[in-house]
Amino acid sequence: MADSGDSKGATSESAAAESDAMDCPSLEGSDDSDWEECDDDESGGSVLDLFSKEELPSAEDVFQHCKTEHQFDMQKFVVKNKFDMYGYIKFINYVRSKNPSPTDISDSCQAKEAPWDNDQYLQPVLQDDPLLFYDVEEWTTQSVAMETEDSDITLPGQQYRALLERLHQAEARSEVTEGQLHDALKDIDRLRQTAKSFILSDQHALRPSHGAVAQLREDEDAAYFSSYSHFSIHMDMLQDKVRTESYRDFILTNQHLFKDKVVLDVGCGTGILSMFAARAGASQVIAVDQSEIIYKAMDIVRENHLDHIIKLVKGRVEDIQLPVEKVDIIISEWMGYFLLFESMLDTVLYARDHWLAPNGSVYPDRCTLSLVAIGNAKMHSNRVAFWNDVYGFKMTCMRSDVTREGSVEEIDPETVMSEPSLIKMVDCCSVSVAELDFTADFSLTATRDGTCTGIGGYFDIMFEKNCKNKVYFSTAPNCMKTHWKQTLFLLEKPVELKQGDLLSGKISVKKNKKDPRALVVRIEITNTGQVLDFQLQ
């Protein structure tokens, strides 16, 4: 049933109703403001009380009067009985027609069917009764806090005592549970401390997590091993005299290290290092490689009549079982561009932690990574400044892409313009995989005046531990060329330096989370505030 607007009805006398009707504008040509004015005029009427002959200004006043004078709360009654609008109208008309007292109404509620629950009470008793137009549905849709202070709840003594006992039991259980939770938290904290001590203890120093590379599935690592299945890459490595002859000289001039020893060759390729070790007197050499080149290595070993010493195993080091419990020496040519690219050192460390005997050695045993300042304005112009004017068009947005990728190339030693700065030293016999992700400060002292256009990276390799004849080689720009070359990181904004000036900053080297064989390098230049991010992939 529609609401009257402001819930204030008109007078019940017919004459007043007719007078109001005459004051209202006609429908034709009227607007909403006219009807609002008409509704406002109704506020001057009166409303007959439900339980007396008293007239009150509004429906709200009637409900308040019922509550204070007759102890009948209309809102509570409507909510309690879940009246909709029709139920409410029938109740009002029932009271108007039968004149029951509030007590009679309360008694009627005990009956199976309420006396007002009859469609005959849909017929108004009072013409234009304002109470019939009052919107009570909002009472039933809002949460009404039922007051209980006016009435006491009486329970039988036995039921009361039972409820009280249950309350006490619940409180006791709550206290016990709280104590148990407190004890459990203390136990968890003790376990955490125990685990921390276990991880950091000396006896487990060589048992760290072996990182993302060890967790790669074989299919995820297939592309990496596939790249080593082609003969050309092995030819490049074998023809690299600095690389191959350094390993040869180390092994053959330190035969006392290999005599009657069990040797593990990690990533054996064509088997060249395994054959050097066999010639140096090793009792057994286990050569492991996952790439297809190992089948060629088997033929090469047989061709050189060393198959009684060298056993070849195809598979990832992280997945295979060796035919021995421990090995005395691990040899591997694991170095990648910028030393750590491809993360093959992770696999060597896995082999070390699983199979190396207590007094065993890993070779090479020590290596370093260094930076130098590079000044090559022509090369920088060709690669970076080139995008400032491309056939009369600006393409400067491309410059950031050029400086995001570290490039592997031969750096002209004439372009080196600083002393080197050591940023990482790796002891292969003790380093952990976690330490291969690192951040280091660098400071490059300019050896001449000029414009620094980039930073170059190179590494040095050492065979020293227990060696009678120590062997070293370097991939620095001023040394004999190797297939590793150097790694160049171009600066987006070149830096002017005078001889003796310092170019300082910080470098961060981490594995790429999406591809753990790739590297992410961040270089921060203190002099200019430049922050450069590079990918090696």
Keywords:
537 residues, alpha+beta, six-stranded antiparallel β-sheet, five-stranded parallel β-sheet, 18 helices, 17 strands, elongated, disordered N terminus
Would you kindly provide a written description of the structure presented here, covering whatever features stand out?
With about 525 residues, this protein is α+β, with helices and mostly antiparallel strands. It contains 18 helices and 17 strands. It has helices at about 15-25, 30-40, 60-70, 75-80, 85-100, 100-110, 135-140, 155-200, 210-215, 220-225, 230-240, 240-250, 255-260, 270-280, 295-305, 345-355, 375-385, 400; strands at about 45-50, 55, 260-265, 285-290, 310-315, 325-330, 355-365, 365-375, 405-410, 420-425, 440-445, 450-465, 470-475, 485-495, 500-510, 520-525, 530-535. Helix 12 (about 240-250) packs parallel to helix 14 (about 270-280). The longest helix has about 45 residues, at about 155-200. The radius of gyration is 46 Å and the shape is elongated.
Secondary structure elements and pairings:
Elements: H1 14-23, H2 32-41, E1 47-48, E2 55-56, H3 59-69, H4 74-80, H5 85-98, H6 102-108, H7 137-141, H8 157-200, H9 211-215, H10 222-226, H11 231-239, H12 241-252, H13 255-258, E3 262-266, H14 272-279, E4 284-289, H15 293-303, E5 310-314, E6 327-331, H16 344-355, E7 356-363, E8 366-374, H17 377-383, H18 399-402, E9 407-409, E10 421-427, E11 438-445, E12 450-463, E13 471-474, E14 486-497, E15 502-511, E16 519-525, E17 530-536
Parallel strand pairs: 3-4, 3-6, 4-5, 6-7
Antiparallel strand pairs: 1-2, 8-10, 8-12, 9-14, 11-15, 12-13, 12-14, 15-16, 16-17
